[in-house]
Design brief:
By secondary structure, the protein is an alpha+beta fold. The protein has a single domain (33-427), classed as Cytochrome p450 (Orthogonal Bundle), CATH 1.10.630. It is 46% helix and 8% strand. It has 17 helices and 10 strands. It has helices at residues 33-37, 40-49, 69-77, 91-94, 119-130, 133-138, 140-154, 162-167, 169-179, 186-198, 203-226, 232-240, 248-278, 281-293, 297-310, 342-345, 380-397; strands at residues 52-56, 62-66, 81-82, 159-161, 319-321, 325-327, 330-332, 337-340, 402-403, 425-427. A hairpin with a 2-residue loop joins strand 6 and strand 7.
Length: 440
């Protein structure tokens, strides 16, 4: 990012917008219901006319939105943009207006999304020891078994809400298994996760869910110290017991963010991906043929394109300037929040030819769907595995799957960071070669 002084800009508008040149259309309305359903035209306008734009968010916080791919990639890796609001005068975090509701009051702040090096380096190294590619690869049969069990639960009905019956429970049960949450406790986690997902925008429900999770995780960590097993929490404990220090607070915060970040992103990947395939018949036919044939190349490529085209994370999590900097001609003052708009960057025509077209065999899809730099999503390999397994199994087992409503009737969930559907009702020919409900 250049430190050169920018060219003179028009005077700021009262809402903080740096202005735009005469003859341009007004800035599109942001954060309305129409915008939530299809933000891409507005993001295209911002990329062209105001690639670093100061907007007032629904919470009342003003933040800089970064929408072009080149600047987004630079910002994600810029050490002058801190992930730790407490160190840089970001008072809105202490008032609960940014970040995850309830994480501060539940003493869950010391996780990878809220810290900078050297603490980030130390904690990520510890987590990486327990979250290895080998562990993810070994987990593939379990993900497949969970996927088949969930489809068995509704395949005989001929209809389902793919979010509630499939996309939501799959990553919850998967991450619970990886963390080491006993089977008898996993439905409680599903309930708490549901409170976080379905009360987005209503902070009280999210805060209650976070409080429940915090109490449970503290007890589980103590139990795993006494009786370790081959799971992620035990791995974190073992790593800390071999010369490096991981406090109980850090372990709980790390387990919490792995659960929180690990389930909602995958819910949205599966839901958004299924909708994209259902509304693009030619691409769906390609994908379904590969799924039936057991061709792994196209589904792997398809997941990357689905992440780029309508990914699960619309905006990267909060960053705060630690010093004055200039980005795409805009001066950003110390302490000001910066939000990298992944959804806009991943449709930048300067980086992706014909970016609004869904093309499952797109080459060189270096999207930013899971971030970039030191904060690149640690759970990306697991999310890719879950997304690929879920979608290939779904379209192989239910070959005439189709939407039960018009696409325009679908609604997106509230919230700033994530992009996901409230529901995805589908119909299909009932399958009789499955176990009855409750016998999976």
């Amino acid at each position: 990012m250049s430190e050169q002084a920018p060219a003179p800009a028009p005077p700021p508008r009262p809402d903080g917008c740096p202005g735009h040149r005469p003859g341009h259309r007004p800035v599109p309305e942001l954060f309305s219901r129409e915008f939530a359903d299809d933000p891409y035209p507005a993001y295209a306008w911002l990329r062209e006319h105001a690639p670093v734009y100061r907007a007032e968010l629904p919470s009342g916080v003003s933040a800089w939105l970064v929408t072009r791919y080149a600047e987004a990639r630079e910002a994600l890796a810029d050490p002058r943009l801190s992930k730790n609001p407490a160190r840089h005068g970001a008072a809105d975090h202490s008032r609960g207006r940014v970040g995850i509701p309830g994480e501060r009051s539940a003493n869950l702040m010391t996780h990878l999304l809220n810290i900078d090096p050297p603490d980030h380096t130390r904690l990520r190294r510890l987590v990486s020891k327990a979250f290895t590619p080998r562990r993810v690869a070994e987990f593939a049969p379990r993900v497949q078994a969970l996927t088949d069990r969930l489809i068995d639960g509704f395949a005989a009905d001929g209809e389902a809400d793919l979010i509630d019956a499939f996309a939501f429970p799959l990553p919850i049960y998967a991450i619970c298994d990886m963390l080491g949450v006993p089977g008898e406790d996993q439905d409680a986690f599903r309930s708490w996760a549901g409170m976080m997902l379905h009360t987005a925008g209503r902070r009280g429900g999210v805060q209650r869910a976070v409080k429940h999770m915090r109490g449970y995780l503290a007890e589980l960590i103590h139990r795993k110290r006494r009786e370790p097993d081959d799971d992620l929490i035990s791995g974190l404990i073992r790593a800390s017991d071999h010369g490096e220090h991981l406090t109980e607070e850090e372990a709980a915060a790390m387990a919490f963010i792995l659960l929180f970040a690990g389930f909602e992103t995958t819910v949205n990947l599966i839901g958004n991906g299924a909708l994209a395939l259902l509304t693009h018949p030619e691409q769906r036919a390609q994908f379904q043929a590969a799924a039936v044939a057991g061709d792994e190349r196209l589904p792997a490529s398809a997941v990357e394109e689905l992440l780029r085209w309508d990914g699960p994370v619309e905006l990267a999590t909060w960053r705060f300037a630690t010093e004055p900097l200039v980005l795409a001609g805009q001066r950003i003052a110390p302490g000001e929040p910066v939000l990298v708009v992944l959804a806009a960057a991943d449709r930048d025509p300067a980086r992706f030819p014909d970016p609004d077209r869904l093309h499952l065999l797109r080459e060189d899809s270096q999207h930013l769907g899971y971030g970039h730099g030191i904060h690149y999503c640690l759970g990306a390999p697991l999310a890719r595995l879950e997304g690929r397994t879920a979608l290939t199994t779904l379209f192989r087992r239910l070959p005439d799957l189709r939407l039960a409503v018009e696409p325009g009737q679908l609604r997106r969930r509230g919230g700033l960071i994530m992009r996901g559907l409230r529901a995805l009702p589908v119909v299909f020919t009932p399958q009789t070669n499955v176990l009855p409900h409750g016998e999976n």
